[in-house]
Amino acid sequence: RARSLVDRHLQRCWRLPDDLPDPERLIVVVGFQLNRNGTLNGQPRVISPRNYTFDAPMNEAVNRALRAVRQCDPYPLAEDPIVGEHFEIWREQEIRFGRRQ
What is the pLDDT of residues 1-33, one digit of tens each? Predict the structure, then answer.
């Protein structure tokens, strides 16, 4: 349930890479931590791809994923009646961004 809440929440902030060349390959995995109140704890970090500096479309996809995580702050987990009290379950997030997030 926690993953579903985060995925649905991020959909409003995530801009698909469909306007970039070869969008099927533009898959980005971002990790981030949340505070107990659902706000970001620190900056999101790119888990995958490891090297994207010299790949302009991938660099743009990474920037979009990081921007989405920041723009969607705070996350609605703390107020959820089912997972809200289980901070240990949702404090660490790892989200895959791509054509099908």
Answer: 999 999 999 999 999 999 999 999 999 999 999
Encode burial over 24-38: b for 16+ CB neighbours within 10 A, e otherwise. Answer: eebbbbbebebeeeb
**DSSP secondary-structure letter at 87?**
H
The answer to whether the CB of 20 falls within 8 A of the CB of 91 is no
Question: How much is the pTM?
Answer: 0.92
SS3 3: helix
Model confidence pLDDT, tens digit, residues 57-95: 999 999 999 999 999 999 999 999 999 999 999 999 999
